[in-house]
Design a protein that fits this description.
elongated; mainly alpha; single chain; 4 strands
Length: about 375
């Protein structure tokens, strides 16, 4: 019993030392608090997958009211900037100079075909950015379809059904605003916790190896496991503070709804924070060099979490080898939990499965870090 009490006193003393050291070193606070705030603002306001101000050139071969109605529908869209030209040559010059993202050709017989129920337009897209091109195509098709439906409604229900066959009414599920910020901001939680947990911990621990601080501790009765616990507690708190900043920004700055349970999200975040800390401790134990530890932490944790965890790219759309690598990353499973809780709700089978995987990662990484942190001098 006295042994446990002595161990608790030693850990408490080490934790106090670590908090004082953390608050004394402003670079740690800059990485732990300042960098998450910067990432929230940059990714939240600066990064978007939505198509805005799409430049559409309309080659108007028919100036009749039906053709003008199509042009008006495009001009009324908040996502497009429409320019009308009279010749196809002028439209092609705009496309060649990349002064336009798309060319919509309204042929000279558009009115006659519209009256016969067989109106067709040709849309030419600039393929330099395939994602942007796909978004523009969707906007133009939606505008043209709205015109056809409106004309059918004016003709009456029977005529509308005969002219269009089936009218599709779509609705976005799990992202009703159809806003890419709702998709990106929850993923920031994963990136920030990865950065704080892995990069900051690896950097600070490697610094202490370089300075000989840990070697000084090893001549005391303190055990390696107690040292690791003392190192984990302060940066665990900093990581949760970063997560709290992300949650506040998601709700107050960007209006992202949280469909699932906040308690489940916090519990999963704590579990993932332990995983990130375990990676950082393991890197520092093997490198014992600040520069090398920071480089490995970025290459082995932050960049893979950003590129291969599903933050931007769906892992179902990548080659099989890349998908396998992505599913080896702990960040992939926390990313899935976070996005599900924010956008879909608490889907317990998925949450419990991913939390079990994260718990296994946490136990394995901490065990490896404990084995690598031996109480001996090299």
């Amino acid at each position: 019993m006295s042994g446990a009490r002595d161990a608790f006193r030693r850990v408490a003393a080490l934790v106090r030392k670590e908090f004082r050291q953390l608050l004394r070193d402003r670079s740690n606070l800059l990485i732990g608090i300042g960098l998450p705030i910067a990432l929230i603002l940059i990714f939240g306001y600066g990064l978007s997958l939505d198509v805005r101000d799409a430049r559409i050139v309309v080659a108007l071969g028919d100036a009749s009211p039906p053709a003008r109605e199509v042009v008006a529908a495009l001009e009324g869209s908040p996502y497009m900037v429409t320019t009308v030209v009279r010749s196809l040559a002028a439209a092609r010059r705009a496309m060649d100079a990349h002064a336009a993202d798309a060319l919509l050709l309204l042929p000279g017989d558009f009115t006659r075909r519209a009256a016969a129920g067989d109106a067709r337009v040709q849309l030419l897209l600039h393929g330099g950015d395939p994602i942007r091109a796909a978004g523009i195509r969707g906007y133009v098709e939606a505008a043209v379809a709205a015109i056809a439906q409106k004309r059918g409604d004016r003709a009456g229900p029977g005529a509308a059904a005969a002219a269009s066959g089936v009218v599709v009414v779509d609705r976005m599920w799990f992202n009703a605003a159809n806003n890419s910020t709702w998709y990106l901001v929850p993923g920031l939680i994963v990136l920030i916790m990865t950065l704080v947990g892995t990069f900051l911990t690896a950097l600070v621990m490697a610094r202490e190896w370089e300075r000989g601080t840990l070697e000084a501790l090893f001549v005391t009765p303190v055990r390696p496991a107690e040292v690791l616990v003392a190192k984990i507690v302060p940066y665990f708190a900093v990581g949760l503070a970063g997560m709290g900043l992300c949650l506040l920004a998601a709700r107050l700055l960007f209006g992202v709804p949280l469909q699932g349970s906040l308690a489940v999200l916090l519990a999963a975040g704590m579990l993932y924070m332990v995983v990130s800390l375990g990676i950082g401790l393991l890197i520092s134990a093997f490198t014992r060099n600040q520069f090398l530890a920071s480089q490995i932490a970025i290459l082995a944790s932050f960049l893979p979490a950003m590129m291969l965890s599903g933050f931007v790219f769906d892992l179902r759309n990548v080659p099989q080898a890349v998908s396998v690598i992505g599913h080896l990353l702990p960040a992939t499973y926390f990313m899935e939990i976070v996005k599900t809780l924010f956008l879909a709700g608490t889907h317990w089978p998925l949450v419990l499965r991913d939390c079990a995987i994260l718990a296994a990662y946490a136990a394995g990484l901490l065990a490896l870090a404990r084995a690598a942190t031996r109480k001996r001098l090299d």
